[in-house]
TrEMBL record:
Protein name: Uncharacterized protein
Length: 62
């Protein structure tokens, strides 16, 4: 049986950031701009989720 390691949250954010950086190396067309916006939205969602987790931990520890 083959085990596939899924990236953790930090790795996912790094992967998304690298995708965005790779996309930004070329002059973006309309389709690529939409893809870049989707990646930015994914990154923002990860950051919001992490922020909520940190805030919950801080409030719970206070």
């Amino acid at each position: 049986m083959t085990v596939i390691n899924m990236p953790n949250k930090e790795d996912q954010v790094i992967i998304l950031a690298h995708r965005l950086a790779d996309m930004s190396l070329e002059e973006p067309g309309p389709r690529q701009r939409m893809q870049m916006l989707e990646v930015i939205e994914e990154l923002a969602a990860h950051l919001v989720q992490e922020s909520r987790l940190v805030n919950a931990a801080l409030e719970g520890g206070a």
